[in-house]
Amino acid sequence: MAVGPFGIDPVIWAVLRLLIALVLAVLLVLNGALLQIYLERKVQAIIQDRYGPLHVGPFGLLQTFADALKLLGKEDVRARLTDSAFFIAAPAIVFAPMLASFVVLPFSKDFTGMDRNIGLLYLTTLGSMTVLGIVIAGWASNNKYSLIGGLRSAGQLISYEVPQILALVTVVLAVGSMSMVAITESQPGPLVNVLVLPLAFVTYFIAALAETNRAPFDLPEAESELVAGFLTEYSGMRWGVFFLAEYGEVTVVCAIMTTLWFGGWHGPGVDAVPALGILWFTLKTYAFVIAFMWIRATLPRLRIDQLMGFCWKVLIPIALTNILATAVLLLAYPGQLWPVAIVNWLGVAFLVFGLPFMQKRRLGRFRGRVRAATLA
Amino acid sequence: MPDYNLSYFYVFAFFAFAAIFVTILLTLSRFIAPRKPSLEKLKTYESGEEPVGQAWGRYPTHFYVFALLFVVFDVEVVFLFPWAVLFRTLGWYGLVEMVIFIAILVAGLFYAWRKGALRWY
Fold first, then answer.
1. What's the domain count of chain B?
2. Whether complex ipTM tops 0.95
3. Single pTM value for the model
4. A120 touching B, CB under 8 A?
5. Closest CA of chain B from A102, distance in Å
6. Residues A196-223, buried b or exposed e (16+ Cβ, 10 A)?
7. In chain B, which stretches have pLDDT less than 70?
8. How far is A243 from chain B (nearest CA, A)?
9. pLDDT digits over B52-65, tens only?
10. Domain membership of residue B19 as a residue range
């Protein structure tokens, strides 16, 4: 008879493992949300030269905990004209795919919920399911702000999903596997994927900001235009579940970036102490989370037409070109990565310097036309 | 293959557990939170004004256009993933096939672009 790890019966071990994974995932989401809200307030406070939460607990650490308790005690108001069934279901529909994403995240070599060869495809599938919940929430609220917010969100999420997935395809091309563990193991040394495929990383990073509704792409909940977007009619813990899901989503996206481009759990001392991998993975993930906050504190929000235009006219053509260029170079120079790296870095240079330059010239021409029109 | 089925069981278990977890949170809040509904409170929010009609009405069609474009590209991606995994085995033959496939799609994107489908009014 087969015996599982620790001498436990394999069937019992499978159930036990599942339970452990479930509890850990929920704890991760809850703690992650608490920590991220605290970090968000502190990081923005530091950037804006303020103190941030200070009074509850040491360094204000217990502030978010108090906020969470308060949220639990808030009245759950549901307007009379809402579509009850969908209104109630929407938070769960947003929350479930986010939680299920944690199954394939490779925290460490032996610390992965499940490692399937379809890992990345699975993650993208779950990522796109969030849209459903948001559209349902917007529609079921029967509120004009919610409806516009929900539809905008649908437009934004489905549009930015395309460059996001195309960026993932580039990595799959270079690595040759969709398993998260295999992708991590393919980059053990200092030569992580971001040095070879920086353009795919930049594309993914921008698209991920939009996918998680983070500034400067937070149009679905643009406070100054749409009150709170699809969240307008939600209050109390129902709103809290959306909030949890949003921060969980940020964690998932940052973990994907860590795995695909930054070597996942690899770091100094991992070979000797495998448990260190969890620490490295978490640190890298949170570095991205803080980068997201930094961007939120720095950049103003885009307009909806700029948002959609940037996705379809800039990101998608760049991502498609990148896939083809990477494929051709990988086949033309088998076993060598430097041609891919050079082309990718040139692409990044174009995105960072060339595009603003082109935009500036277009603006100059436009201004010239306006001036000519006023003079005539 | 039991291991294969097991991983799908994991996914379903996570979905089920998420639903249960959300229910637990909401039930907990139901016991703790006050419930004092009033006619004014249960009105739909509309910047403090009396709501005018319902929100379930007509809305602009460009959302629909973008959704169509998205479906096209999302289906494309489904074909791209298996090719990317088997990319080295398929070699130049697979690459040329993919270039043709992507070229047709890019032509479609370009057509939509020229037709103004990507413009947001």
1. 2
2. no
3. 0.85
4. yes
5. 9
6. bbbbbbbbbbbbbbbbbbbbbbbbbbbe
7. 1-6, 48, 121
8. 12
9. 777 777 777 777 88
10. 1-35
